[in-house]
Amino acid sequence: MKFEMWSVWHYLLMLAPVIIMTVIYLLLRKRSYKVRYIVGVVIGTISLGILLLRNIDIYVRTGFCPDIIPLQVCHFGNIMVFVALIFRSKTATSVVWCLNLIAAFGSLIFAEALEGYSTILAIRPQTYIWGHIFIVLGALYAVIMKIVRIDLKSFFCGIIVLLILLIPSIILNSYFNDVLGMACNYFYIYNPDGVPFGFLYIGERAQYGWFTINWIYTVLVVALALVVMFAIYNIQKLLYLKEKEYKTYNIFTAAKMRKCAK
Q: Which of 123, 191, 208, 211 could join 57 in a cystine, given CB atoms 3.0 to 4.6 angstroms apart?
């Protein structure tokens, strides 16, 4: 079965996470928080399992390659969904909701990579499809089902996590591309291939020994990402207009509170 862009199946792929989320919401909207949390655990576990299956398949078939390192936005997105829903982490949820949601949904819309497979029934295209679906689903579930409420502090903690991941990504992008000759584009920060950021690629790559970087492009991409993330963060706040004091706690804080209450 061959994948075709803008076919009926492609439109269904784009709608899939929204359809699944709608069904889940209708089934769980009146259920207890415990039930909703358990369903979130299942979603988070599946999200991580998809990434592991993908990486195992790559390693078995081709050995080590840059794709195995989960520094691409949607690859660590599967991990962040797991952390957000299992541990009720505000920081992980802020990353998933503010960044991974948009990136993963964009990958479902611009899914040209699927056209390169002779059949979408193989492991790699299936993990591409379901990996991105579960990132979008996990982000929507955590926020819409009010498993985790993101506050401004957790938003900035998420930014710090992303900046920490960004530093090795920039270094490894240059090392794999410029030294080893292996295609690598973590965070889409090496060049705009795969994302519509071509208009941001201004100037040339500066070279420092073996390391190269386009400073203007890097700064502009990071700045654009921060603006978009802050806008998405504020959208989440609309859910709590009538519950401004609503708070959520990670599983460790919640356990301590229960212990103190006793």
A: 123
What number of other Cβ atoms are within 10 A of residue 255's Cβ? 11
Q: Give 104-110 contacts, CB < 8 A, sequence gap 24+.
A: 104/74, 104/77, 104/132, 104/133, 104/135, 104/136, 104/139, 105/14, 105/17, 105/132, 105/136, 106/195, 107/74, 107/132, 108/13, 108/14, 108/16, 108/17, 108/132, 108/133, 108/136, 109/14
pLDDT band at residue 256 using 50, 70 and 90 as cut-offs: confident
Listed in sequence order, the residues at least 6 apart from 200 whose beta carbon sits closer than 8 Å to its beta carbon are 192, 216, 217, 220, 221, 224
Measure the CA–CA gap between 132 and 26, rounded to whole angstroms. 22
End-to-end CA distance of the chain: 58
Place of tokens 């270094």: 171
Please tell me the pTM assigned to this model.
0.95
Q: CA dist 117 to 70, 128, 196, 241, Å?
A: 22, 11, 23, 46
